[in-house]
Design brief:
3 helices; elongated
Length: 103
């Protein structure tokens, strides 16, 4: 294929704009405090999946006030730890998306 007559086109990647930047910053800070790092877009997607599993309308769920609870949810979502209370369906814990690791 001869491309000599075709004009050169410049391609530029534009990063995704986050829908919930404040929440993502807090999630990153909580993970960093525990010695973990994750990409912003992965955090937003993970929390969106968690929100979908816990809300029939698929609405973004507010982050828990307690950083320990938030950290456990994030680490579960990334497959670092198992879901807590795995056998006790009456325990006061959140619903996890069925495709998350170790669930």
């Amino acid at each position: 294929m001869d491309n000599s007559s075709q004009r050169m086109q410049f391609l530029q990647y534009h990063s995704v704009k986050l829908n919930y930047p404040e929440d993502v910053r807090r999630m990153r800070a909580v993970l960093a405090g525990a010695g973990y790092m994750a990409c912003e877009i992965d955090l937003e997607r993970l929390w969106d999946e968690f929100s979908q599993a816990n809300n029939l309308r698929g609405k973004w769920r507010d982050l828990p006030e307690d950083d320990i609870v938030l950290l456990r949810i994030l680490l579960t979502g990334f497959g670092v730890i198992d879901q807590w209370f795995p056998d006790d369906h009456d325990a006061p814990h959140d619903c996890y998306p069925s495709h998350w690791p170790s669930l």
